[in-house]
Specification:
The structure is a homodimer of 209-residue chains.
Chain A lengths: L11 H21 L6 H8 L3 H7 L3 H29 L4 H18 L1 H11 L7 H24 L9 H22 L5 H12 L8
Chain A binds a DNA duplex (30 and 30 nucleotides) through helix 1 and helix 3.
Chain lengths: 209, 209
DNA sequence: ATTTTTGCACTGACCAGTCAGTTCAAATCA
DNA sequence: TGATTTGAACTGACTGGTCAGTGCAAAAAT
């Protein structure tokens, strides 16, 4: 119903408010979980009245779902970009994998709270946003699976590997190592962590190099 | 676990009730999270009156904490057992690691709900049971770290590996791969999944074997 | 005889969602 | 130009419901 005002593009104010709400919600939910986080808390942390939350989002769950979509969208884009970049530079699939590990670490470094929250919700069942989560998860994992499959086709990886399981294992490796890094040894550098994971990934663990 | 008559130390009946409550709580909390799960639900699922919950546990949080301790205790024991078994058989540290991966998979296969719940809570902050979780986590990770350290000392692993981070990454690999297995391809056999992870662990992914 | 469980009514705190009213910048008017 | 109108955005007190935890007398189990 845009009767009078000739709006060029969406309201900036509204978008800014939504962004503030995302940022408030992500940290609170990462710390406490979805159910333990109240809408009042989110509003207060965002510096906004409770009614504003409901003006901008249909419900607490919807706010959370859109936050999920928003965050995983960023991750997926980042992984794709990393893979394509190596491609452009003529690197092999091992390099692509390594670049994606780094991209994952960079993402987690920048958005640790989102990562926490994502991991905590990913394997729950019977929740309202379950289907959203699945869709969004698949988009991200598919990028890794794609690179693995191309690597197998190119003869760069053994054709005996199980693409789906290996992709999951790789994601888990990065995810858990990174969360451990952020939680228990935050002083370490990204390069340092990346090096440790590269070593593990390339089987340079057993055998004294 | 059917003991017949009065055990020395604690009443068997009480223990049985507590066990029923653990089992009810673990699935409900895995599905819905701690806050979204009500004490009434837990009591009902356990086939017990609400008063009984409070006769056996001081509070909902305490029930959860003891559940956590109980579950991780089982996992830690299982990992230790696997490592010691390989030791006894004269296997190397690589074998020990592999045996622990398998023990992890067996555990997750048997207690998927507990695993879900554990992962969901592990990186949360500011929760009542935070300290319990840390203690219990450390016990489990320490087993893996121990094997890695011994492997480095024995010259079986590169001394350039970062023990703490590598341990975390390994745990993550198994955890996420196993949850993926249970959630998305439950028809696969444990051996199958184990083989895929072994391959990844031993660097038999890049290079066509 | 003692421990454990039951059943159920009750309380008080807490919380998601609502809604009538306010604000204010831009649009329209004079 | 300044005055007035419009409506999207925001506010916060309020409502209806939920839930952790309590209290206790009677029943059951050991």
């Amino acid at each position: 119903m845009e009767s009078s005002s000739a709006r060029a593009g969406g309201s900036t104010r509204r978008e800014a408010t939504r962004q503030k709400l995302y940022e408030a919600a992500v940290t609170l939910i990462a710390e406490q979980g979805f159910s333990a986080t109240t809408v009042d808390e989110i509003a207060e942390r965002a510096g906004v009245a409770k009614g504003t939350v409901y003006y901008n989002f249909a419900s607490k769950s919807v706010l959370f779902e859109e936050l999920l979509r928003h965050g995983v969208g960023l991750l997926t884009a980042s992984l794709k970009e990393a893979a394509e970049q190596t491609e452009r530079e003529g690197g092999g699939k091992v390099d692509a994998l390594d670049a994606m590990v780094r991209a994952g670490l960079v993402f987690i470094d920048r958005y640790p709270a989102f990562t926490q929250l994502y991991v905590a919700e990913l394997w729950r069942t019977n929740r309202a946003w379950q289907s959203t989560l699945m869709v969004v998860r698949q988009e991200a994992v598919a990028v890794v699976e794609g690179v693995l499959r191309e690597g197998v086709a190119a003869g760069e990886f053994s054709d005996e590997i199980d693409v789906q399981l290996t992709a999951a294992a790789l994601v888990g490796m990065v995810l858990v190592a990174a969360l451990d890094w952020k939680s228990f040894q935050p002083e370490r550098s990204l390069d340092d962590v990346h090096a440790a994971l590269s070593r593990l990934l390339q089987g340079r663990v057993s055998g004294t190099v």
